[in-house]
Specification:
Layout: H1 2-33, E1 69-73, E2 79-82, E3 91-95, E4 100-105, E5 112-114, E6 117-119, E7 121-126, E8 129-134, E9 138-139, H2 150-160, E10 165-172, E11 177-186, H3 190-200, E12 217-221, E13 229-238, E14 243-252, E15 255-263, E16 267-276
Antiparallel strand pairs: 1-4, 1-9, 2-3, 4-7, 5-6, 7-8, 10-11, 11-16, 12-13, 13-14, 14-15, 15-16
């Protein structure tokens, strides 16, 4: 009798073990099949060799609606146009750098963070398609064309934005003269000024917009400086995880150059100082 009961107990234990194992197995399997928690995604293009030419407005785009708001794509390699107002919805198109888009409905409250840039999804119209785009890569200021001078770019901006200012000063000594150009963009944000300065003054492409969180004093070195350039680095100054200043510093046998981006009461100020050695 004891032997029979022991045999029955062993079978019960084996059956229960099998049930538990099967339950755990299918539970783990189902967990693996579930969609992962969505993470913040880059809205800029991931193409290896994206076009760097600024997009030109078509004849239909030039027929302005006086009551409409237009913004420009500032992501160097283009910006995703999505079906819905979230980063996981299907992509309808890629809007090239410099493209002007019509804002259908703007979202003023920041609801997401992409690569350190706070923003939200605006509903926009591009190439006769309506969709949503991350407004952190949209700006009312059209980006500079390649090889345009700071003075020329400021002059073009002033036609649409009279409050944009440009100042040029000289200084230094007879043997080491200096020249400083300053552009002020009213009501611009840090990332807008950074993208403008990067394009206008030819920052290395590998320098991404620095995040607010980080060391109070951070140096990011150019891993592939141009021939003849001794120093090429991005210097970021922060206070309590808030950006205070961004500087691109580079030096060669002939020049010492510093491009400074900082906030003022009026807007963002971009200055380039070049000292002749």
């Amino acid at each position: 009798m004891l032997t029979l009961n022991t045999t029955i107990m062993k079978k019960v234990v084996l059956i229960l073990s099998a049930v538990v194992f099967t339950t755990v197995f299918f539970s783990c399997k189902n967990d693996k099949n579930q969609d992962p928690i969505p993470s913040e995604q880059e809205e800029i293009s991931t193409e290896e060799n994206p076009s760097e030419e600024i997009a030109m407005a078509t004849s239909t785009e030039l027929n302005d609606d006086a009551n409409a708001t237009y913004l420009y794509v500032t992501a160097p390699s283009g910006l995703s146009l999505r079906e819905y107002n979230n980063l996981q919805s299907d992509k309808l198109a890629r809007m090239p750098y410099g493209t002007r888009v019509k804002v259908v409905a703007a979202e003023s409250k920041a609801t997401m963070n992409v690569s350190g840039i706070k923003g939200a999804m605006d509903q926009v119209e591009f190439n006769h398609k309506k969709g949503f785009a991350f407004n952190g890569y949209l700006s009312k200021y059209f980006p500079p064309e390649r090889d345009i001078t700071a003075r020329g770019y400021a002059s073009e901006l002033q036609e649409l934005f009279p409050k944009v200012t440009y100042v040029e000063t000289t200084g230094g000594t007879a043997s080491n003269p200096s020249n400083t150009e300053t552009i002020t963009l009213p009501e611009a944000q840090w990332h807008e000024a950074f993208f403008t300065a990067q394009r206008l003054f030819d920052f290395p492409k590998e320098f991404a917009f620095p995040k607010s969180k980080g060391k109070n004093n951070e140096k990011i070195f150019d891993s592939k400086p141009k021939k003849g350039v001794w120093t090429s680095q991005l210097e970021v100054t922060r206070n309590d995880n808030t950006i205070q200043k961004i500087e691109y510093v580079y030096a060669s046998a002939k020049f010492d150059t510093k491009v400074t981006i900082e906030a003022t009461d009026v807007g963002m100020k971009i200055s380039k100082t070049e000292v002749v050695k």
